[in-house]
């Protein structure tokens, strides 16, 4: 699910083979050195005498590492040259690390309009992806092990990472740079879809939220408005236009909530709203523990309906 | 003593001994009396290297255990997913403290401590050249370290990681004092490390056995020399870094705040320019120990001595060229990644040389499988593996995956536990007989080794996989179903195995370690080096002359002759404590250094220094300043008793060698120390200039930013003129103070006094000039950088000022004349440095913006 040993993109597999080469080579060298050491200790003196000279140091400690490293270094540099190369026609995505979640923006692309989402990156299979990252507060690091290495998100700087998903699936990314209280709970989903499915998703995401038709959900929407949720969160198509927290226009369509913490359903949404500071102490959002059970259900139901 | 058969043994053909028998009545008694340790409560005022060294090692080991306990709590938390043994905040403090304490309060002090104990013995020096300085370094570390560690019990420990990356550690995201504890607490522990490094450099270069030329120096001394030079070069970067971050936190000077022209990456460069060499700073002394233990256990000379020394120097040199490999994921251009990738792999070569030199030595002798040997073998296993994973992470693309994952946790523990903790345990078992009545138990030692070796591998081997399957570092918990559960549980079990091994070691220590000097267990391993000579607080009765690298094997009867006082300086020439200073290359006797004895000054100065920094942390500014003044006062009180002058005519130390008891100028030990201090200061300043230029690079076209006026050139010129004039006056004073007749011309205090006014004027003019342009230090990184340079210069001028006043006071008290002028020389050297730094600062601050297009 989240592993550098299960590559799903070109860069990750290049690095995977570098890893394997170095692991096998490293094990062989380790075994040779330790057997030599044991030989030096336990072999009969006359048989190990040849080892006890400067020649051993010159060959083993100087020549051998120089030759091995001279072979390895170009391989490593070639992998580096080929990895993370910007490609023409790439799909641009902007990701901003915030304590402790991910703001994801899909900029306008041709006639497709821009929109924002959070904690979830949907990509089409086969098309190169160009992610540009930065941070809004402290340093974070953007890492999807199955697609390649990580890149730091640094305030005031924009870094880039390029990858291509080679097979559809659900992958997971995490923050790899310690970023404060809830660094441990800062993950996101990466979902690779077939190009057609991706286009559908994109079209849906660009639309404003739909007005609820069921009374309970309408009540949830009213609670959302009256509770001031809109001062931090945006729901496009309503008066809620806060930019501080994640955009919730299509929050119901996301796989997980709380930056990759729980599966997304009405129960977890309600639990999250009521107990934010208990579940993820230190995040910006306060717990809304004073809501009655019914109100909570209505509010969570409304959010879940934002698909 | 049955010396092993070896080619090139000097055997019978030994030079005539310098001093005849029998020794005069009372000579030995006088020596013992001079070196007698104080009794009762005053015992803590002892400054002799054996006492301070032992306390130092003990304290460092205490921190090893404390930081280890923190690790056990973390491992218990991570034993299962979603663990809730500790809160996220406590966990963040735990891992920050574990790293910080292990690095700053255990590893560096431990290797420094061991050398305080061992170096003089190994070089047959009576003591380190500045015993009070090592006592000061120890007490500052002891008091400061314990208070710093105590913060964990109050939830006040730093929680931003041992690397303290801003902006997370800036006031905006860490408003509480936790971060200040790190910045100020660690700041002065670094000062303690630098004090130790100065001591070690001068000790290795100047106080050795007669004839112990550089090519006969024990490898351990070489390792400590490279270690100390690396501290002198590397630590200033972190000192400056902590200074800048603390100034940002305290005064809102935006060095690392991107919105105001700062850059978080500046911190990372400063931190890792120190942080990477730090690893080798810890590792090299350990390899030095290994190079001492292996030949003894194999009962043969070290193979490849010159190659090993070369490897030590090469490691030290290379280690300063690869700090960026900690920043492979920060988005630097691939071009620079390639360079640092290559440099990082290159450092494997000198390590390879050392490993194969030990294998060759083992092969050419007969390795006895004692406890020290087992720890050495364990070290070679573990360190080789850690070195190989080190080559892996040196490959930038692999590092993009492994960086900040558990793979790196595994790698660094293999390198540090393998490369430093195992050699240290080998050293405990190996050298215990020097300081204890009994050796430690071989039987228990095997248990210690077995538990630690297995535990180490059980803990950290699985972490390589844990990291590659995606587990990031520094997480207080992890979700279920990630596939990390079993591996983490295994790691936790391993951690407790290591703890069990350490517990058995403590038991062994309690049962068998009994501190003593005269009746120690002695040379139980039949080792070849001088620390195994019979010794007391005065170290060796007489100072031997050596003709090879393995004197105890090659010079028969050496122990007996040294003990009988047949070698150099068998008593005391001045009636007090003395050390024999030798020339730096071929170790010919140069003069007798009158070593200061016990005193409350270093203890009090250290306590007040610690109080100054710690009280500043909790914002008790007034009390803190009082402690700072008291600390400076204690240092002056301590210095007042030094620089004794030629208290007697040159003395005969034996063999017809007559040496003075006081010298000045470049031969003097404190001249050397001052030069090293100037290098430290120069490095701090260089790092500051680097920071200035770095901030310029991230602010293209805004250096200075819009609306900032650069002062008219006339003011910096005036300031420069004043600096130069003050230096000229000091040079004139130095000329006046020349000659063999002990003159103390009246012009000297007047010249120093006027020069003081000039140098203070120079700094004042510059500060006033900047102030006059309304440049704000907190509006933009430009102003912050300019004021940082100006402030550092003012700090140096203030120090010069105190030194100048002190020198005048020495003259007024009749303690300064044309012969007894070490105090003046020190002030003079520091003065020239301050002037040089001031001129450079003016050139950068006023010249550079004009070059980059400012007006």
Automatic annotation (TrEMBL), chain B:
Q: Chief localization class?
A: membrane
tRNA processing as a keyword? no
Q: Indicate the segments forming the Cytochrome oxidase subunit I profile domain, all copies.
A: 29-532
- Top-level taxon of origin: Bacteria
- GO biological process annotations for this chain's record? aerobic respiration; electron transport coupled proton transport; respiratory electron transport chain
Example GO CC term: the record gives: plasma membrane
Compartments, record wording: Cell membrane
For this protein, the parts annotated as crossing the membrane are 54-74, 94-119, 139-161, 181-205, 217-245, 279-298, 305-325, 337-362, 374-398, 410-432, 444-466, 486-507, 622-640, 671-693, 713-734, 746-765, 785-809, 830-848
- Database matches in Gene3D superfamilies: Cytochrome c oxidase, subunit III, four-helix bundle (1.20.120.80), Cytochrome c oxidase-like, subunit I domain (1.20.210.10)
Q: Which UniProt keywords apply?
A: Cell membrane, Copper, Electron transport, Heme, Iron, Membrane, Metal-binding, Respiratory chain, Transmembrane, Transmembrane helix, Transport
The keyword Transmembrane belongs to this UniProt entry's keyword annotation: yes
Q: Which GO terms describe its molecular function?
A: cytochrome-c oxidase activity; heme binding; metal ion binding
The way this protein sits in the membrane is described as:
Multi-pass membrane protein
Membership in a protein family = Belongs to the heme-copper respiratory oxidase family.
- Name of the protein this chain belongs to: Cytochrome B561
């Amino acid at each position: 699910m989240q592993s550098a040993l299960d590559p799903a993109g070109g860069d990750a597999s290049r690095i995977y083979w570098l890893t394997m080469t170095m692991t096998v080579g490293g094990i062989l060298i380790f075994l040779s050195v330790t057997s030599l050491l044991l030989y030096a200790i336990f072999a009969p003196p006359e048989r190990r005498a040849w080892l006890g000279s400067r020649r051993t140091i010159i060959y083993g400690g100087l020549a051998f590492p120089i030759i091995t490293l001279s072979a390895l270094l170009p391989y490593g540099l070639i992998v580096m040259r080929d990895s993370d190369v910007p490609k023409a026609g790439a799909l641009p995505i902007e990701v901003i690390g915030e304590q402790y979640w991910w703001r994801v923006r899909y900029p306008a692309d041709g006639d497709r309009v821009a929109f924002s989402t959070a904690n979830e990156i949907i990509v089409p299979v086969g098309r190169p992806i160009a992610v540009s990252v930065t941070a809004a507060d402290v340093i974070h690091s953007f890492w999807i092990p199955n697609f390649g290495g990580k890149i730091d998100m640094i305030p005031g700087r924009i870094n880039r990472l390029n990858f291509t998903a080679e097979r559809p699936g659900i992958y997971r990314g995490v923050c790899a740079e310690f970023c404060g209280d809830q660094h441990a709970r800062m993950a996101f989903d990466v979902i690779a879809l077939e190009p057609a499915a991706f286009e559908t998703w994109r079209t849906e995401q660009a639309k404003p939220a739909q007005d609820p038709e069921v009374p309970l959900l309408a009540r949830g929407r009213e609670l959302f408005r009256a509770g001031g949720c809109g001062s931090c969160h945006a729901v496009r198509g309503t008066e809620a236009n806060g930019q501080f927290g994640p955009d919730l226009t299509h929050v119901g369509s996301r796989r997980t909530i709380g930056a990759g913490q729980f599966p997304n359903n009405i129960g977890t949404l309600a639990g999250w709203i009521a107990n934010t500071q208990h579940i993820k102490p230190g995040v910006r959002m306060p717990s809304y523990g004073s809501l009655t059970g019914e109100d909570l259900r209505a509010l969570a139901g409304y959010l879940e309906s934002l698909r | 003593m049955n010396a092993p058969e070896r080619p090139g043994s000097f055997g019978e053909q030994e030079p005539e001994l310098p001093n005849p028998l029998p020794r005069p009545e009372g000579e030995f008694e006088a020596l013992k009396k001079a070196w007698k340790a104080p009794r009762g409560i005053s015992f803590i005022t002892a400054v002799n290297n054996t006492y301070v060294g032992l306390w130092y090692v003990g304290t460092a080991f205490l921190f090893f255990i404390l930081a280890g306990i923190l690790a056990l709590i973390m491992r218990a938390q991570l034993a299962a997913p979603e663990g809730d043994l500790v809160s996220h905040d406590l966990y963040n403090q735990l891992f920050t403290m574990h790293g910080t304490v292990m690095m700053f309060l255990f590893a560096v002090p431990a290797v420094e401590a061991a050398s305080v104990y061992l170096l003089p013995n190994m070089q047959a020096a009576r003591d380190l050249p500045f015993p009070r300085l090592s006592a000061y370094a120890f007490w500052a570390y002891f008091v400061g370290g314990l208070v710093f560690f105590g913060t964990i019990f109050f939830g006040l420990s730093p929680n931003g990681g041992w690397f303290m990356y801003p902006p997370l550690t800036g006031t905006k995201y860490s408003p509480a004092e936790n971060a200040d504890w790190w910045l100020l607490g660690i700041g002065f522990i670094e000062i303690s490390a630098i004090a130790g490094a100065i001591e070690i450099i001068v000790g290795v270069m100047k106080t050795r056995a007669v004839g112990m030329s550089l090519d006969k120096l024990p490898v351990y001394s070489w390792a400590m020399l490279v270690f100390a030079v690396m501290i002198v070069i590397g630590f200033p970067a972190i000192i400056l870094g902590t200074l800048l971050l603390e100034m940002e936190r305290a005064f809102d000077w935006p060095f690392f705040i991107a919105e105001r022209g700062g850059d978080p990456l500046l911190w990372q460069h400063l931190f890792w320019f120190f942080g990477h060499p730090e690893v080798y700073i810890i590792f090299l002394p350990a390899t030095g120990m290994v190079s001492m233990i292996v030949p003894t256990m194999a009962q043969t000379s070290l193979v490849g001595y010159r190659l090993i020394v070369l490897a030590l120097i090469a490691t030290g040199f290379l280690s300063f060229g690869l700090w960026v490999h900690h920043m492979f994921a920060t988005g630097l251009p691939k071009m620079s990644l390639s360079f640092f990738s290559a440099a990082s792999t290159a450092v494997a070569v000198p390590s390879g040389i050392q490993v194969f030199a030990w294998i060759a030595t083992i092969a050419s002798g007969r390795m006895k499988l004692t406890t020290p040997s087992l720890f050495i073998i364990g070290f070679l296993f573990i360190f080789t593996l850690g070195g190989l994973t080190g080559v892996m992470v040196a490959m930038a693309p692999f590092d993009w995956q492994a960086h900040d994952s558990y793979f790196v946790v595994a790698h660094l523990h293999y390198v540090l536990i393998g490369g430093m903790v195992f050699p240290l345990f080998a050293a405990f078992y190996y050298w215990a007989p020097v300081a204890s009545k009994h050796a430690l138990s071989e039987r228990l030692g095997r248990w210690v080794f077995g538990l630690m070796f297995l535990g180490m591998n059980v803990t950290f081997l699985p972490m390589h996989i844990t990291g590659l399957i995606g587990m990031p570092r520094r997480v207080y918990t992890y979700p279920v179903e990630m596939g990390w559960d079993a591996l983490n549980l295994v790691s936790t079990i391993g951690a407790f195995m290591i703890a069990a091994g350490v517990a058995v070691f403590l038991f062994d220590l309690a049962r068998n370690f009994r501190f003593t000097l005269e009746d120690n267990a002695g040379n139980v391993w039949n080792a070849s080096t001088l620390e195994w000579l019979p010794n007391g607080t005065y170290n060796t009765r007489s100072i031997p002359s050596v003709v090879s690298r393995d004197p105890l094997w090659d010079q028969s009867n050496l122990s007996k002759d040294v003990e009988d006082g047949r070698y150099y300086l068998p008593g005391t020439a001045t009636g007090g404590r003395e050390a024999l200073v030798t020339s730096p290359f071929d170790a010919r006797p140069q003069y007798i250094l009158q070593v200061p004895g016990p005193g409350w000054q270093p203890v009090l100065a250290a306590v007040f220094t610690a109080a100054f920094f710690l009280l500043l942390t909790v914002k008790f500014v007034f009390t803190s300043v009082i402690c700072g003044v008291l600390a400076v006062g204690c240092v002056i009180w301590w210095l007042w008793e030094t620089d004794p002058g030629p208290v007697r005519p040159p003395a005969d130390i034996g063999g017809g060698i007559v040496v003075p008891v006081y010298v000045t100028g470049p031969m003097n030990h404190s001249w050397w120390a001052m030069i090293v201090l100037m290098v430290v200061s120069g490095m701090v300043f260089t790092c500051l200039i680097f920071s200035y230029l770095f901030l310029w690079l991230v602010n293209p076209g805004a250096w200075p930013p819009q609306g900032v006026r650069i002062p008219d050139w006339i003011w910096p010129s005036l300031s420069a003129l004043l600096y130069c004039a003050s230096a000229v006056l000091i040079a004139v004073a130095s000329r006046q103070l020349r000659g063999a007749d002990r003159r103390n011309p009246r012009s000297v205090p007047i010249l120093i006094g006027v020069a003081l006014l000039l140098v203070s004027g120079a700094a004042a003019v510059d500060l006033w000039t900047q102030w006059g342009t309304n440049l704000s230090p907190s509006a933009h990184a430009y102003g912050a950088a300019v004021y940082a340079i100006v402030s550092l210069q003012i700090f140096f001028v203030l120090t010069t000022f105190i030194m100048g006043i002190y020198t005048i006071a020495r003259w007024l008290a009749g303690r300064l004349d044309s012969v007894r002028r070490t105090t003046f020389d020190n002030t003079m050297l520091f003065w020239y440095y301050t002037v040089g730094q001031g001129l450079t600062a003016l050139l950068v601050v006023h010249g550079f913006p004009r070059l980059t297009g400012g007006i």
